## 1
Amino acid sequence: MAEPARIDGIAAPSSPLDGMPRVAARGAPAPADFAALVAAEMPVVIKGVFDDWVALAAGRHSPGRLNAYLAGLDRGTPVPLMEAPARARGRFAYRADMREFTFTKRYAPLRGTLARIEGLIGREDAPTLAIQMLPLAEALPDFLRQNPMSLLPADAGPKLWLGGAVRTQTHNDRDHNLACVIAGRRRFTLFPPDQVANLYIGPLDNPPPLSLVDPENPDFDRFPRFRDALAAARVATLDPGDAIFIPRYWWHHVASLDPYNAMVNYWWGAAATGVESPNNVFLAALLAFRDLPPGERAYWRAMFDTHVFGDPEVSAAHIPEALRGALGAMRPDERAALRRQLTAAFRQ
């Protein structure tokens, strides 16, 4: 068995997840090839896509070098700081009642936060600190010029994640995600979107909804369906210089494997709003369908399967194309008219 990786003399603990099937990996693609990867809607590890980053060179050197680099870009904007007590062992998750989380959030100065995170490296029984979702375009705008990402549109603003050995419970994103590791190692455990029933996701009204299962130590007596989720899972362990593309809605558990870790990620993708937002429609469906009698539920399930998730060239083939309306390929004016109709209806 290989020796566990070490940083600053500290061994990173092994996990049963390390032996699971791996996410496919490839070299840096051209922008057109990357668009094809996104269209395929499958996770992939990408190597060599940001090798020229100043931040990556600093992160590969040492925590102190990367912290000094980031502090040199600081313009005084407070940063979002998450902190979990030592008893949480780095696990950012729900508390027992699922009303609160195991971590607190506040804003703090960047320089002092970086110094505190660095000072906790190697300390036993120390709290876990992490800067999460820091918008670099606002807080450290020079970062974008010195560390460009050619694969993504300019409005896909990067965010910084930096801290200790955090383990973030399984969740998903409504946008595509490109995560680029610049210091330490991170393990991503990914589950396809259709595994939602096997992941035991928590309440939707306490965002972000998280899985209740610790994938590194699952309680199969309490969560028996999680075995099926693990059977569908794939794992990727990223070193500094590696990136991973995660399509929207793919569930992922993220573990920072070393005492100091840093990552920059990008979320992007056209996000519909109002009555065309899939999430809004899903919430409306909970109101409209869940409490209907069984026969009515079966009718609407068949309607959705046929006309929403089915092939319109099959389900509406018997209707002349000019008369298909919402059942066919709507023109822009037809979409706008339907949007106005629904907007008026939801105001009632």
## 2
Amino acid sequence: MDERTATPIGEGMQPPRARKPITVIEARPGWRALDFREAFAYRELLYVLAARDLKVRYKQTALGAAWALLQPLTMMIVLSIVFGRLAGVPSDGAPYPVFAIAGLLPWTFFANVAPTAGNSLVVSAHILTKVYFPRLLIPLSTAGAPLVDFAISALLLVAVLAWSRIGFHWSQLAAPFFVLGAMITALGVGVLLSALTVAYRDFRHIVPFLIQFWMFASPVAYPVALVPAEWRWLYFLNPMAGMIDGFRHALIGTPPDLWGVALSSASALVIFCIGVAYFARVERRFADIA
């Protein structure tokens, strides 16, 4: 039998290393509040995403930003002929072109933001799996390009007001607040749709029909006065009803339905809170199913 010499510990033989603990990072289940402080810290990324959308919007187009004027101008002419002349729809005492363009601008802004925000996560799926940042910035950034379009379209609105000899009214200073309400509504709907579209791609087909129906349920081509008084409270649960009606009356210089505007404003805030809350709940699954 061979003799073997035992080697003391420390002389050519090391003790086994202790295993390092493994840390597993998991999202908290259930509902949770959105970290707005974190989202604010990434605000520069929000500007970058919005600028990217603005560049892509008119890239390789012959007319460029002129489309922001041609689209509402064309729709104003069509609505003025069909509803103003042929159908004889009342226009709250204002010339129908003014009535039409004052309803088209906030509606067009909403109709551009909500569907784009709804599809934003699916379109940006390649980003979700590569780097971490607050995912809410993606749908929020889609409001940048339509907001620039709205500012350009406002030049057409000023021209129509001047042509109709509607001068300055102090009430016109309230118009930006109704634009803000339309933005809150559009982003609330868009954020909710973006979270739903990631999980259920059927919403990509439902949203165009929803926006088309929503337009006829909003006072774009007709005044709120045509809605029966007993059903008007239900009508103003549509937040765009109060935003469009308030924006229009602010420009014309006539008092809006204040109770209806307040109801629509509350509805807009509720929709936005629901959209953000649901987005925060399912955000942790976006990278897996996008």
## 3
Amino acid sequence: MAERVVPEPERRRRRPTKQGTVLSGQVIVETALRLVGQHGAQALTVRRLGAALGADPSAVYRYFHSTDDLLLAIADELVGRAQAGWRPTGDWRADLRDLGLRIHAAYRAHPQAALLAAHRTTGRDNEIRAVEAVLGVLRSAGFPDEEAVRIYHAFVDQGLAFAALDAATLALPAAAQSADLGVWHERYGHLDAHTHPNIAATARLLEADMRRSGYPFALELLLDAAAARLTGGSQAG
């Protein structure tokens, strides 16, 4: 999609599509999410969006300047969905755990979109609200500002990195997912204890644990470390 600036009055027009849908930025984002979920990144084109919306493809330009502009809106939509219904309780650790798991779940629910959007910084309303919320939780807990920023950075990057990793797995064809999981039994589960004593001793545990995301446990480790820094005087460095 090439860059094209559309006058504001024209952008605000609301005309029903052939399907009777009144176009809006939100409708386009939701349609784009559905298309990407069904057909992958290649579905994010003006032509395919127009067909799905029942509108002339050029109508998309009234709301988004480019496919990248739309992609940022998709990323911000996922952040917004993660925050829906979330409210701080005053327990900083429980609040961060809840928000982290919500973010991770929102991206896992849309793995194809997560692959495109998890690494983007949108600077839009939902993202700004999330940054403000996490920093608010940390500062209210007593973390100094410098420490709050560093923990925020680690918290967000950890969650998004796991979301992207898990999304990549979920985006694989079912046969590939099954084959990858099967490696833990077929290959690792049959290694000789004389040559690989540590793997042999834990093979069954490995096979079971690798079937679930490592994020919840990794999040607890991060929260443990943050709590230790808080009670220990927040040693920076």
## 4
Amino acid sequence: MFDLPPLVDHHCHGVLLDDPDADVFASYLTESDAPAAPGTSFFDTQAGFAVRRWCPPLLGLDPYTSPARYLARRRELGAAEANRRLLGATGIGTFLVDTGLPGDLTTPEELSRAGGGRAREIVRLEVLAERAADAFDDARTFVDALDASVDSAARTAAGFKSVVAYRHGLALAPEAPTAAEVLTAAGQWLGARSPGDRLTHPVLLRHLLWTAVDTGLPLQLHTGFGDPDLRLDHADPLLLTDFVKATAGSGCDLVLLHGYPYHRGAGYLAAVFPHVYADMGLTLGHTGARARALLAEMLELTPFGKLLFSTDGYALPELYVIGARLFRTALEELLGEWVRDGSWGYPDAHRVAKMLASANARRVYRL
């Protein structure tokens, strides 16, 4: 119904370079870090069913083929060929890749090459801090190195990403800390830190956020659901309201990732604050056959120029496939219904579809 341009996936990650076994594969179909209940599999989820619906035909199999047959075919092809076939079928033209996750994953360049598109990097702020802490144990040197690393990354990155929702929660004091407060906090954290420890100090997290805001690049913020390392009630985007107000007029756009089950709150913030945007990634892939209903809820209050497509694809190229396919299917069904019942005219529906697919992201990230 809609002739869409190549999608801009504004938030995603690398995919595995090697073939995962059945248990590892299934583990990426959920945000849980525990095994499935005895006698069950994470293939029995909305994400798992979506994979079985949309991915087998891309590897030469019938839809709904069994997980065992699908994974056997995947092994026959090998990881590189499976990645190429699956990513190449997504219709994604630009990948904005968060490189902050560990693992034997493709680089942004390798990901885009397999998908036949282009890539830019999204730099994760907490990783910059932890790298600086591994290199410097003096508070002043650490702070100077951290600030320099953010400035350096801003020269080439498309934007920054923070997982402060995981490290502390979103109910941070909204204002930027003073230089003295940052130096004191750095001394406290470095003095108590062991190698490999993650950044959780609230003052340093606030300093990171404001250092990124000062670059003027878009800042992605994880909100809503994730793995059990997250306290979901601490990840409600409405907890960011004071920070949103404090950053108004800064020149930095805030992009609220994921959101579910608080996606309506993210849409509200995008509706009332000019520099706030909402995202549908992760949510559509994990709600599967319910993606249309979730997209409808996102479009209740979110201005149509403030909602961005992403897959949040990670490790499995299949997650890119279902993220893109569910988005297209939900969009065509939903907007098509509004056109048929006379609520919308087709030209407006087509224009909005293109905004969600790519134009909004191109504007926000200056692509």
